[in-house]
What does this fold into?
Amino acid sequence: MSRLRKKKELSLIEELKERDLLEEGESVDIPDLENEDLIEENSLSVMVRCLNPAVHKVGGLVKALPPIWDLEYRVRGRGVSEHRVQFIFQCEKDFSFVLTKGPWFGNGWIVAVDQWTPNPRPDFLNQISFWIRIKGLLIHLLKKQAVESIISPLGKAHAWVPADKPLQFRKLAQFSTGEQIWTELTYEKLLKVCFLYKRLTHDQEGCPYNVAEVRSDVRERSMLCRSTPLRVTLDTDRRNKEK
It folds into this structure.
């Protein structure tokens, strides 16, 4: 007999957030800070973003990633927000290895990794580094220009893919001769993705887009069921009158 899992109790702050009761609060003036030492201290660090919060917990990533990198004793990790972890390295070599040898995974799901900076870019922690293989191009068309044209919206053959967009697995290559060829894109090291919407942020069982469609379909079916008895009643009344 399975035991019911006890629902985790929310903290006061979590309860207020869930009920949307947190106010903006009063502003506080902060004096000028001399923070060059902190910037220097964090210069050899990376930020990691949990793309799939259902399987990625901050504390779990702090423990899981250093062994994957084979850096258990040469890196220090800490959670800095609900879905972000910072790892501080002791040397440039280890720091560069983590930045350049991705993509990296936790529980089979990809995480976004980027160099820490005090002034992050708009796409900070929203890009995934992939090597992409193209299948389908004929030998006489397998030129660098063709490959780069197919991958162009993503970058080069070594591409930075937006983490919040669906992955593209097929593209139609159109040549100046009028020839059209469907190509397949293979993302090296990719382990898991939502098979319904090709997203990196969830699996198909917990797909929020699919749930929305199911709810819409249920509403339509419910409206149909409510209207059906009315039509039956009218048809019955008409038959009675004809008698």
Q: What stands out?
A: DSSP finds six helices and nine strands in the chain. The first helix runs from residue 12 to 18. The longest strand covers residues 127-135. Residues 39-125 form a domain with the Alpha-Beta Plaits fold (CATH 3.30.70.330).
